[in-house]
Amino acid sequence: MSLDAQTALLEDNRDVAQARFETMLENPDTRLLGLRGLHVEAERQGEAEAAAHYAEKAMELAPDAPWAGNALLRHQSQGGDWQGALKTLESSRWNNRLDKKENNRLKAVLQTAEAMSLEDSAPEDARKLALSAHKLAPSLVPATVIAARISSRLGDIRKASKILETTWKLEPHPEIADAYVHVRSGDAAVDRLKRARMLASKRENHVEGRFAIAGAAIDATDWQTAREALSSILRSNPTERACLLMADIEEAEHGDKGRMRDWLSRAVRAPRDPAWTADGYVSEQWAPISPISGKLDAFEWKVPVELLEGPGENIDYSDLALEPLEIEPLETKPVEEKPEIAKQELIAATTTATALAGSEANSDGDNSGDITAQEDAPSQTSADITEPANEQTDVTIDEDATGKAPPNGAVPVGDPANDQPEPDDSEKQSLPIADEAAGNADSKKSDDVTELEAPVMPDDPGISDQ
Fold this sequence. Notes:
Blueprint: H1 2-10, H2 14-24, H3 31-44, H4 48-61, H5 66-78, H6 82-94, H7 100-118, H8 123-136, H9 141-153, H10 157-170, H11 174-181, H12 189-201, H13 207-219, H14 223-236, H15 240-254, H16 257-269, E1 275-278, E2 281-283, E3 300-302, H17 341-366, H18 371-376, H19 382-390, H20 399-402, H21 416-419, H22 425-428, H23 432-443, H24 445-452, H25 461-464
Helix pairs in contact: 1-2, 2-3, 3-4, 4-5, 5-6, 6-7, 7-8, 8-9, 9-10, 9-11, 10-11, 11-13, 12-13, 13-14, 13-15, 14-15, 15-16, 17-23
């Protein structure tokens, strides 16, 4: 029968295999084997309730069966049946399947889990369970924290401090430090700082003691003490937590947003701090079982495996622990004033148009500048010559440069410099090229006529005005 069930499983025929396992329950010799096969198939199909039922039946049939005790304990823990899990664990101990130390540890975990569920509704019962768990496993941090928190709430400050100190000596932990510093509600920040110093002295040179002092000093606005507590951490192991505390110090003490952001960026690249981890799962709080495998007491306080090193390089922050960052201000230079682009373009356009107009006027007065152009195109009439001149009528001539506005937009013939007084600097900027062009045209007047020796063309009304 067992061979038939195994063959069906190999052939992936689950229905046949389950039928074979159920048939095995009828025979006392194969009943335990059938229960195990049914338990495995129920877990494979995700039927937790059925799997727990088969494990419980197997535990009743054979209390010394290791698989039955472990499976039942796991199912009861996942279902939150802490009392049932404690009974199963006790039964396993009497069958010598667990040693005393391991049994005490698991029992403390189960009692702590039950105390967590009863802390709000039944604080006295929760306190008894937590104190019992602390006695069985003094290094179990969650049990100590719950027992101290409830004792402090009930007014037993001395008891709470004592159990916290006991666990701190065995396992320094930030949750222990936080509970110890705030063991008495209503204390001033200075008193909490004294408590942090006292706790740190019970485990000299431990990093958690320095963190406790730094946190209490920040609350007390004792910035120098906070920096001194963090300085050694930043020199030896600048973790994310240390960088975040430095960011808090910079913002609270100086209000320096730049330095705060700098420390926040360092925190992103810094090595990570220990955390509660189980089967690769990272949690902010301790839990009695793993959410991945369902294993009891799976969470450990350690640096996650995938985060043993930060994403960036290890940087020495020792020079930044006590002194502020020296940030040089940016140099600022006065902006040079430049002329407006539109005004510059207007002046350039006006100057060029005026220079061209003056050059054409002087050439027409000599009756020599247009000789070559007329010989190349003798068929042009006076109307053809007048037409391009009319295109220039849109050019505006400064009245200050000529003395008077020309009629109908025409450019006067002659040298404005001979008729008008010397213009000032502002007027010179308007028509410097026109004056120079007019002067050069006069100086070369006689030479151009002699060289060409061409007959003077009769005056044309369209040309003389231009």
